[in-house]
């Protein structure tokens, strides 16, 4: 188990120690469940009452919150960001693979960098390239001509098709499929004619892709995921989508074909973006929203209705269907009113 003193953390985080700087931290926990040797944090003032009873060895706090706590603390600018960094330093997650397993199938033409690990029954196709210090989990497939950057962690049973380029420091979780065919067909008198998807997928540095997420290859041009993007579990990214740098998309969301999502966007869970649309930089899409038109300016967009008692929802649904008729009746009344005047 790794451990680090409070004063060493203060040095790394550019923070200030309150209390005993030699206190040793070996893991992180919530205020409510922390025990001796653990570091916790307070990022939301509504949980301030938990400070009184926490058993944490030390707590990450802002200047304002530190006024309410007499125990060991590390005073930082942003307690939640500091908590994330400390969590990384004390992370005990095992590697996706160790060394190269005898059952791994690696094509003779593939090129592996230094210190690459490949798990049991993994397959690396012809002319594929894997960068230094990258881990390929058991059962994962890397297709022909694909390039995997250095310091990546690809967990078990990931499928990366041919002509997929992955940057450095990326994490791909189990069950993800990258480079599968996009949904491209032409209709000939009711018969569907498949359009070969000959583009690839280009993924930048420091991207994380959640479990069972699918990213389709481009139809002709590439599907592009820029640096720092984070995708949650079970997301569908269709062909020729472009997702701008540092955008975050929560689970069960669907991005239809040829959409362009800006940089630094946040898309809430269970949202859907219709095809061939663009969303500006810095847009926040509320969870459950259906985006059906271009979003040109930074801000928050929402469409989902809130939960309500079933009887009320049924009445409102009926009234919603009557809106067009009501609108037309109001127009007639307005016209009649103007004529009377």
From TrEMBL:
Key word Protein transport present: no
Subunit annotation: Homotrimer.
Native source species: Parashewanella spongiae
UDP-3-O-[3-hydroxymyristoyl] glucosamine N-acyltransferase non-repeat region domain boundaries: 22-89
Annotated Gene Ontology cellular component terms: membrane
Name assigned to this protein: UDP-3-O-acylglucosamine N-acyltransferase
Leader sequence residues: none
Catalytic activity: a UDP-3-O-[(3R)-3-hydroxyacyl]-alpha-D-glucosamine + a (3R)-hydroxyacyl-[ACP] = a UDP-2-N,3-O-bis[(3R)-3-hydroxyacyl]-alpha-D-glucosamine + holo-[ACP] + H(+)
Pathway linked to the protein: Bacterial outer membrane biogenesis; LPS lipid A biosynthesis
InterPro entries: Hexapep (IPR001451), LpxD (IPR007691), Trimer_LpxA-like_sf (IPR011004), UDP_GlcNAc_AcTrfase_non-rep (IPR020573)
Sorted UniProt keywords: Acyltransferase, Lipid A biosynthesis, Lipid biosynthesis, Lipid metabolism, Repeat, Transferase
Family: Belongs to the transferase hexapeptide repeat family. LpxD subfamily.
Entry keyword annotation includes Ion transport: no
């Amino acid at each position: 188990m790794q451990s680090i003193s409070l004063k060493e953390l203060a040095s790394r985080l550019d923070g200030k120690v309150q209390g005993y700087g030699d206190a040793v931290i070996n893991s992180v926990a919530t205020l409510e469940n922390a025990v001796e040797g653990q570091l916790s944090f307070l990022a939301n003032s509504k949980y301030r009452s938990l400070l009184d009873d926490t058993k944490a060895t030390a707590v990450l706090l802002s200047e304002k919150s530190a006024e309410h706590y007499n125990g060991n603390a590390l005073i930082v600018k942003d307690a939640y960001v500091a908590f994330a960094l400390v969590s990384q330093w004390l992370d005990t997650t095992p590697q996706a693979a160790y060394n190269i397993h005898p059952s791994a199938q690696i094509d003779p033409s593939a090129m592996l960098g230094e210190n690459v690990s490949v798990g049991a029954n993994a397959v690396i196709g012809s002319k594929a390239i894997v960068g230094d210090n990258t881990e390929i989990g058991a059962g994962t497939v890397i297709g022909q001509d694909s390039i995997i950057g250095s310091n990546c962690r690809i967990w078990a049973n990931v499928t990366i098709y041919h002509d997929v380029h992955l940057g450095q420091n990326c994490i791909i979780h189990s069950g993800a499929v990258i480079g599968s065919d996009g949904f491209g067909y032409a209709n000939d008198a009711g018969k569907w004619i498949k359009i070969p998807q000959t583009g690839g997928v280009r993924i930048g540095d420091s991207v994380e892709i959640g479990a069972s997420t699918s990213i389709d290859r481009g139809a002709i041009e590439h599907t592009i995921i820029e640096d720092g993007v984070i995708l949650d579990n079970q997301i569908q990214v269709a062909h020729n989508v472009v997702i701008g740098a540092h955008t975050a998309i929560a689970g069960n969301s669907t991005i239809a074909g040829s959409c362009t999502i800006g940089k630094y966007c946040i898309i809430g869970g269970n949202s859907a973006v219709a095809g061939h649309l663009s969303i500006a930089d810095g847009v926040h899409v509320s969870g459950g929203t259906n985006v059906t038109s271009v979003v040109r300016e930074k801000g928050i967009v929402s469409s989902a209705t809130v939960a309500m008692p079933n009887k009320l929802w049924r009445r409102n649904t009926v009234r919603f269907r009557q809106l067009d008729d009501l609108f037309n009746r109001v127009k007639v009344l307005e016209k009649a009113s103007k004529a009377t005047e």
